[in-house]
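idk why but the lab printer keeps eating my pages so im just putting this in chat instead. protein + uridine-diphosphate-N-acetylglucosamine:
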Amino acid sequence: MDRIRIVGGRPLDGTIPISGAKNATLPLMIASLLTEETLILDNVPRLADVALLERILGNHGVDIMTSGKRAGETADHGQTLHISAARIVDTTAPYELVSKMRASFWVLAPLVARMGEARVSMPGGCAIGTRPVDLLIMAMSRLGADIEIDGGYVVARAPRGLRGGEITFPKVTVGGTHTALMGASLANGTTVIDNAAQEPEIADVADCLNKMGARISGAGTSRIVVEGVAKLCGARHAVLPDRIETGTYAMATAMAGGDVLLQNARPELLQAAFDVLAQAGATVTPTNQGVRIARNGAGLAPVEVSTAPFPGFPTDLQAQLMALMTRARGTSHITETIFENRFMHVGELTRLGARIQLDGERATIEGVEQLKGAPVMATDLRASVSLVIAALAAEGETIVNRVYHLDRGFERLEEKLGRCGAAIERLSG
Ligand code: UD1
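predcted complex ->
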């Protein structure tokens, strides 16, 4: 199993290219199931989760072709995928695959919308909590699907097609909103989705669906209206930049000190996080190439933050912010309101000398003068990158074990940080 070795204490200076968003790429790839024509996706990140979803879609009969590099292109350019679901050969998504990546449960809606039935394994719990799918099932049943739970599988049937309906989510859910959007696009009649997730990845997927012939308005707000159409067609769409990767490298720069251009980053996708960073003492400057982030000399100020659905502070940046606050001059409070158990990083950060107390969903972080390198364990995707951030400022060597978690969501992390001066390397095996 690969490990990452970091020797802390070096500032970051240079440019980090931001990749396409993982959390938009996955539902965009899944949306290919809605049409028999080819969907072309540009700016797709090279991630383990993308490769795994390629396998999962392959199981349903989807063909995926990756374009070779064109002249002048480097690994910094995303890949282009040509995805064709001309013939769906299997409407079952088995436990072995869905349990490896929760988002693959989202194939449920397009499979039922197009094929009239699907059998998709329930994903089960994961490192950050129980993560139920009841609201995704509710959305499908509001669209007229008959639902049965059988042997750990959700079996959904709508032999005469889905029909438009009113879906009001009692809680904001990204996966629920994707499910409702994809199902409603091919449903008979109009669907109104209330209390929809407003995350930029929802608007990106809706944009792509509209290019495919869907009639969606209001995506990116809390009320989305979808007029169902009988058929969707092929389209070409470039994935939006990854706001979580952007925020992660912004926090890394704030932690290590230095001056980094986050190339292609779009500040409006993570205003809440940039506001917190500015409050902590970093300088955030939008430029025509992306966003520049700098911290020179001055120490970090503590902050009070609660995670919230977009446009609030993202739960996917909670662990990274906590790593940063371990070295603030004073006491910070971070409250996690989205996932009940998303504090696996706390124990590992403590191994590096952090002082963190947990009280239910609220963490109190008392800044320390200096962290000290140690062997630590990556536990989930965002938690593991928080250890990298801490290690960048820790005295001596940190070894991060189980980096396959990182590879799920961060493309060439060690290369991107290394090019900016970090002492970081991957140890294979
Ligand atoms: C997506 C993101 C993930 C991010 C999360 C919240 C992807 C691939 N993943 O996950 O990175 O952390 O949004 O921004 O885009 N809930 C229910 N019942 C349901 C569904 C959700 O109670 O049926 C709850 C969840 O337990 C959680 C909250 O709703 O407390 C939000 O979850 P949701 O937005 O659905 O997260 P995901 O779509 O799984």
